[in-house]
Amino acid sequence: MKKYWKSLTELKNKENSISDQPMPKGNLEQILDIFDKNENGSKSNRRDFLKLCGYSLAISTVVASCENSVQKAIPYLIKPEEITPGKANYYASSFAKGSDFCSILIKTRVGRPIKIEGNDLSTVTNGGTSSRVQASVLDLYDTSRYKNPLKENEKLLWEELDEFVRKELNRLKNANEEVVLLTSSVYSPSTISVIQKFIAQYPNVKWVQYDSQSYSALIQASKMCFGKAGIADYRFDYADIIVSFDADFLGTWLMPVEYIRQYAKKRKLSDGNTSMSQHIQLESRLSLTGSNADKRIPVKPSEQRLLLAQLYNEILKLAGKDTYTVLNTSGDMQGIAKDLWSHKGKSLVVSGSNDVNVQLIVNAINYELENYGSTLRFEKQLQTSKAIESDMKNLLEDMKAGKVKALLAYGVNPVFDYYKGDEFALALKKIGFTIALDEVPNETTSLMKFVAPDNHYLESWNDFEPKANRYSLMQPGIRPLFNTRQFQSSLLSWIGEDPDYLKFIKAYWEKNFYPMQNTYPNFVTYWNNTLQQGVFEPNLKSVSDTKFNYGGINNILDELAKQPKSKGIELQVYESIAIGDGKMANNPWLQEMPDPISKICWDNYLCISPKLASELMMETGDVVEVNSKVKLPVYVLPGQAYNTVAVAKGYGRQVCGIVGKNVGVNVNSLHNSSVDFIDNVNLIKTGEKYDLAMTQTHHSMEGRAIVREADLEEYKKNPAAGNESHHAYENASIYEKPKFPNHHWGLVVDLNSCVGCGACSIACQAENNVPVVGKKEVIRAHEMSWIRIDRYFSGDEFNPDVSFQPVMCQHCDNAPCENVCPVAATSHSSEGLNQMAYNRCIGTRYCGNNCPYKVRRFNWFDFTKADSIPNNLHDVAEMTIDLKRMVLNPDVTVRAKGVIEKCSLCVQRIQEGKLNAKIKGRKVKDGEIKTACEQACPSGAIIFGDLNDKESKLVKETSSKRNYHLLEEIHTLPSVSYLTKIRNKKMNHS
Amino acid sequence: MSKPYRLTCALFIFILQLAPFQILASEADSTIKDDHSSHFDYFLNSEKRGERLFKGLTRTPVEWQSCVSCHNINYIDTLNWNPSAKDIAGTFANKSIDEFRSVLMSPLGKKMEKSHKDYSFSDEELGYIKSYLQKLNNSVLYETKPKVNNLILFFFLGALITLALVDLFFTKKIKYKIIPVLIFIFAFGYQIQMLAEGAMALGRKQNYAPIQPIKFSHKIHATDNKIDCRYCHTTVDESKSAGIPHVNLCLNCHLIVREGTNSGKFEINKIHAAIENNTSVEWIRIHQLPDHVFFSHAQHANVGKRDCQECHGVVEEMHVLKQVEDLSMGWCLDCHDKTAVDFRENGYYSESFKELHEQLTSGAIDSVRVTDIGGRECARCHY
After folding, report:
1. pTM of whole model > 0.90?
2. Which CATH architecture best describes the domain B36-138?
3. ipTM value
4. Cβ-contact A657, A144 below 8 angstroms
């Protein structure tokens, strides 16, 4: 069996890893400390104890004779027809934040959005979600949001603001001075129309789009090669072989939700399927995508373009075309080229680079491989990123030169995330008239004179075209909580039109989209049905010409060949899975979501390769100074290419709510976004130490066969490959085996589909009111997540294989936790659930100690104001504030201090599903009940169902030879099982 | 905690329980005295004069009933259909004296017409009454009957125990030691029982029947007018919550029915006022389970076909709604143990539970009870 290790410390020094560190003190120890203060005072301790006893007796007497508090029951005055108190309503909508897009359903309870779910009807996102989409509902209740229009931080009325803005805009128009409207990429047809109208009214307005993560190289390369600017529609589900150069397409690159679905679909081994795609990743930092790759080659960022050129050369060779002799090709590239060539038309080469030359080569390769039309398509181009980087550069020049007299900014934060943020801030201060149209204060809006606050997306109307001809509507789930107004309405009212944006959208759709279909006879039914479904996807065949006509490749290759090899340390600035570009930094759920690879939360850190770390005598937790600019803690990341370091951006927000403020370090000054990396980085060890909140070393599984895996070749020969050892006993317990007369709920996790993105854990947090504990508590291993994703490394530390394994309560039929509970607070149900009655729990934590899977969590504090004792509170996430508590799911108990909690298999959803079936007098249908994690998963790796229903999808999967349970040998008989991970390692030609 | 401290503490709580409003009231009185130094002024000031008029303490024609005989000022145990003085005060707080007069002198409702017959207060007198009512509106009145008996008894028993123990060990006045010992055992045992009962009743509200903002009678609606429960509690069959009817639903009937036999127009007018002023009706919640209990009306009323009365008592006989059962977990489980499931009719049950169906057909069991299919399991109600 392979040897798995969870962290480098574990790999290197097993003996003294844990015992050397002083363990942080627990609550009880801290209480005992108080008693110990009086050194010889053992007598007084006893007296204190007696005092406490007497006091509690008196209190209980008084309490027992108290009256109950008076509770009010306030009905609606006029009940909205669609609302049934106690039942949820779902509204189809869209999530859009910058380039992040997802078609969603908003779950509301009595008009209050509490959860986001994926919209199955969308062919773009296919019902998948990401952690950021799941967490976005909490931002609605963010206390730091703008609550009123502001003029230099003074509240004013909308009418006053409108009048002032109109006057100012007209003055500038008459003077013909330049006004700039700065937005993130806009891919909403109606919004574009509004902006066009705005520009028509004020012709002096220049519209600039800016994205913190620029994809302008992709857009420009496409224009240069095919005469059509834009980003191709990538189809990972059509590719037999994927070669990715630093494109983290499962994590942050373009549309991860869509790509994960496609990627996992091609690699599913259900229903007797024995083929899966092969994925080769060449990258410097071990990204989420790289960790899922079948073959990963660590390379420095600077080497990638040369490797691409070599690959192109090899493919030309195979195609029998003219080659470039200047390039010497490495063995790896020759093999990859042959593999690609043998899957011509069914392969895909992508690059995450933002260098036009690199993207030109990638396009040329894909063209030679005849991938256009199959794995790369143009008729449904991706529209979520449109910004061209040079526009921003020009804008900054104009601003510095004083040409720009007014700036309107919407959805952007260049002061924080543009690499010349400081210059931008200085130039911004010089502009006479600046107005921010954002929903929350940020580094940029705080420098602007006026604020016309936008609604949160859950309060807004809008439409989107994430991909050409794939439309998705956004409808509000709640009225605006504060005195805010949509960006579009603001623009409309400033050009003196009706500010009702919904009316505008409807008119626009009636004119443009309604004629594109013939299903609905009139616009009203069309609109109502589309709104209900959330998406409109007309069948349009537009054949696009994909003729490659770019002749400059020669020059690019020549230039590349001449470039000297870099020797210094290279630094890459990347977007993290949780925080992204930092716009959602004030979201505590995301801050506490551990990074899939490093398992660190609440911080950014400098990833450094193990070899470089040992050369520089550094270890995880050391603070280094990078280029004498920023100080960062080091994290030794296995798999990081030698002589490279990487750090996540989006951290170190300064103007932000209290959750995200000063979390991590802002590294935007370190990089230059038009270049993928910076060279010759200088690292100086400061000698300081820094505590990183890691969830990784706490759950070590001590080298047992937890993750089972096999190679595709082995699997083809024997479907049970890697899954040989099974526990044979039917019932070896002293207890009678429980019977399940009707349902036996179970869950199966396909490790081959799971990419480790973490959407499930945030979905679970939202669904089950799982509290946020804060960095300090995470360091003390007190995190509360009900579903954690374990990450195991195996093999070589310089380029390890990575396995992800979501672990939730296994709902054992012979549960070790149940028989140690002294108060029977946890017990087994006749439906196979391991039940947890919080109000029976007295907090002995015996169950947590006896659980072999370590999935039980203890509430060390009252995180969500479940009781009224102020000293119990521990609130790092403002979750005790009424506004934020609105996000809590009313169907799940809010746990108080001192009780154990754990995954319930979303029993509230099970009960709801059963009740619906009972009301209709029928059986529960397979797939009718979905757990929150299953619903959120973009790859369909989690399947919930009834093990007693032999026709169910769950039973089909669990009867596979790949099925196994965690720690079968201890005879816990879990209801949750796993399917082995299969790697497609065998290269045909290399 | 030392004994004297405990005693002071107990005394303080005792006083607090008994007399908070008296303390407050005396303070208020003293300020009035400061303002009006002369004794004469004190009785002639508008509020005092209004109070005397309201309570019928001044000379008025014999056939006039004093206001207080219908409109109670203090908390009363029995049901009074007429609005209390405080109710009236609240209603007329922001209305002009003309409106007050027109309602008082020329009543519209039949019931009011009878008692307000031939009223002829002068404007001045009306003003006095109104200002008295104003004062009432601002003061705090008892909403429930104060209960201190249990606490007194508890502390009395505590004193008894102390005395018994003191005598047993120190003074030794009583010859037979068994007597103080018996006193101790009895008193302490009783205290423990009180504590246990009190603790168990904590959070439960058996026999709770608070005064509601509108004197709504289920008896009049459900029995006299034969309105079905589901006409108002519309969501009982589909949702967790049976639904307190929204105010607009009341208007289905009360758009036309503007006057009640017992309460006249005053109570029904509150519905119209709520709609007109866009203010909510804040009912006092009676049946309330703790937050960690997830009870579904749809499960019990629709699937289980339980009658409302099984849990809520004979609501249709109640003028003032009262919680009949204690809604404890033991009470829930008793019913789950006894109640048979609709096992053959409902497709959810009939198409599964093979073994139980076999036992049913073979006659091994005569019915399947809720307990038999997991009705005692934690996660059915707690999650």
Report:
1. no
2. Orthogonal Bundle (1.10)
3. 0.84
4. yes
